[in-house]
Amino acid sequence: MSASVLDRLSPPLRARTRTSVPDRVACARDLWQRRLIHVQHEGALPSELPLAVASPASGAEVEELVRFARSEGLALVPFGAGSGVCGAIECGPRALVLDTKRLRDFRITEAGTLRVGAGALGITLEEELGKLGHTVGHFPSSILISTVGGWVGGRGAGQCSGRYGKIEDMLLGVSAVLGDGTPVSFGRRANGLDLVPLLVGSEGTLAVFSELELRLHAAPAERAFVAFELPTTSAGIGLLRQIYQAGLRPAVARLYDPLDTLLFGRHGHEHAPSTSVEPWDAERHRGVSRWLAFPRLIAAALAASERTFMQKTLLVLVFEGAVDEARADARVVTALAEASGARALGDGPARAWYARRYAVSYDQSLVFRQNAFSDTLEVAARWSHVEALYDAVRRAIGRHALVMAHLSHAYPDGCSIYFTFLARSGDDAEAVHRAIWRDAMDAAMEAGGTISHHHGIGRLRAEALGAELGAAGLELLARLKGAWDPDGVLAPGSPLGAPPPPAALEAARAEARAPRRTAWQVDAVSGLACAPGDMRLSDVERALSAEGRTLGLAVPPPELDVAGWIAAGQPGMPDPLHDPVAQRLAGFGARAAELRYELAPAPRRATGPDLSALWLGARGRVGVVEHAWLGARSRRSEPARALPHRVDRAPAVSAGEQAAWDAVLRRVNGA
After folding, report:
1. What pLDDT digit, counting tens, does each position of 394-418 carry?
2. Is the CATH number of domain 3-99 3.40.50.11890?
């Protein structure tokens, strides 16, 4: 297509639309490792570049671009800073890239919240907020090269998630243009209709974000750094679980497995091995590549080492908050740790990590110079499945590559595990990378984990997404896509919104017609209870009380069954903004029209939009919840210290939101 079509844009926007090859190359992909491997070995640029790169400077110009793309039959690909690692960005000659980075202004509202353009760069935003005494609390390793819109689109997590939660816990509202060209402002509600979770994790497939509203916190008045050595990884997992289930909320909690502990001791942070590139090191670089040709032998040697002399693990914690809070919590954790057999190491390891907390984002690229490649993979599971998840995924990756891991992003009900692997880069590197991911995703699901905690889906996890969400989940995503982007203008080719195969969908419909009832059960290790949808909430509380547990309702249980309570938005639950780390609904099974959708419990996930919004607070407009996994803390534990806020928890539903919801209902219910 000729670039002359761009002349139909308004003059100001046309002036900010670039067509040079370097501009188009820069925005044609993200940092998906498999694509980087391809570029390295083929020595070629991406085979298909976008038509142009447009940089809107206002919400009105975003709306113009969406409408322009629809009228001209172009694909529109939202682009932040391009730091994603899952292949969410894919272009072609009929694609127009919408670069959001001019949408970077911010302001603090009278309610003390932050309204910020979707293209604001993370580190710049935090530095400016820090001067004003505030923080969002979101510090991903990519903060130097990622945008606020990218955080929301990918359903990301920052290094301080242990206190502030993931990005979905910080997000209060979204101003966006849907794929049909409609501008809508969405708001979060404690108990009513809340469509914002359907946008979080959508990876540019449903709407283009123009402005986000985020919660603000006071910048921490103090930090406390502590670290401990534990005899085994299992002991470390047990201590980490005990900390969060006791109501403590260290902002940072990182437990390193034996190999990662060894490397941490050398470098002061998680570190891909042998990344020096000094000229005199060239022979060692060639040796590393030859050594990586035998991954199974490496795995066997590491396993033997961990059974003998290399068993110890390192736990690093950083607390932050008001004066005396951080130090007080650090003292409590130190007592817990020492009682469990951990050895206190002082504050040195934690301070060393903090000083180099973003360095890992730069280390990985150096591995290419050693004729090798590295990548990272994050999964998550409830506490009762974390050890099995760690063992299974490590074995799966270890068949192909050197692998190490650390646990981070912990919650009362579970934790994420972050694997780093290093493999030899030969002519078969792409095939090796594909095999590693296929085997790791299969292992994660077999062990009861989720396939993604905070990196998202992209093209990388397309196959695994169907296995986790099932045909019903894929079909619901496709119907959501049809409601808000009926012409498929936004981010075409993404698995988020692609319908399942017809045979799989028909099998799901047949399965949904079969009666099913889930029995009451309690996962005491994870602090979760699975309740049938028709069980009275008062009976749930009585059953939990008999086991020394509680839902933690702020008022007596309402006279509702579990399904009705979820449909009403879980009234009586403590405000989730007070403790954003604990979640209200860890998993569930529900009906939607002729489908039955089930989401296994996990502490957090990044598997596209959060479809629980179709039932939670939705007053039964889509269907009924058949069972739900609910947080059930021990009555002996104290609730977490509440984080203060002045946020309106029941904003009025706007006309735009209602229209967007009505469109979803028509599609999902088959009207």
Report:
1. 999 999 999 999 999 999 999 999 9
2. no
DSSP conformational letter for 637: S
Q: Is residue 550's pLDDT more than 50?
A: yes
Main-chain dihedrals φ then ψ at residue 581, nearest 5 degrees: -80, -30
Using CA atoms, how far apart are residues 252 and 235, in angstroms rounded to an integer?
A: 18
Cβ neighbours, 10 Å, residue 455: 25
| Correct CATH for 251-317+348-446 of 3.30.300.330, 1.10.760.10, 3.40.50.620, 3.30.420.40 | 3.30.300.330
From CA 530, how far away is CA 315, in angstroms rounded?
31
| Residue 211 contacts residue 103 (beta carbons within 8 Å) | yes
CA atoms within 13 A on the CB side of 430: 12
Looking at the DSSP assignment, which residues form a beta bridge with residue 418? 378, 406
Please compute Rg for the chain using Cα positions: 24
Would you list the domain boundaries of the chain?
3-99, 251-317+348-446
List pLDDT tens digits, range 311-346.
899 999 999 999 999 999 999 999 999 999 999 999
* 3-state DSSP assignment of residue 540: helix
Is 0.90 surpassed by the pTM of this model? yes
Query: At a CB cut-off of 8 Å and minimum separation 6, what does 562 contact?
Result: 531, 532, 533, 534, 535, 536, 537, 540, 625, 627, 628, 630
| Whether the Cβ atoms of residue 110 and residue 129 lie closer than 8 Å to each other | no
Q: Which two tokens stand for residue 562?
A: 């579990």
Cα–Cα distance measured from residue 379 to residue 377, given in angstroms and rounded to the nearest whole number? 7
φ, ψ dihedrals at 88, nearest 5°? -75, -25
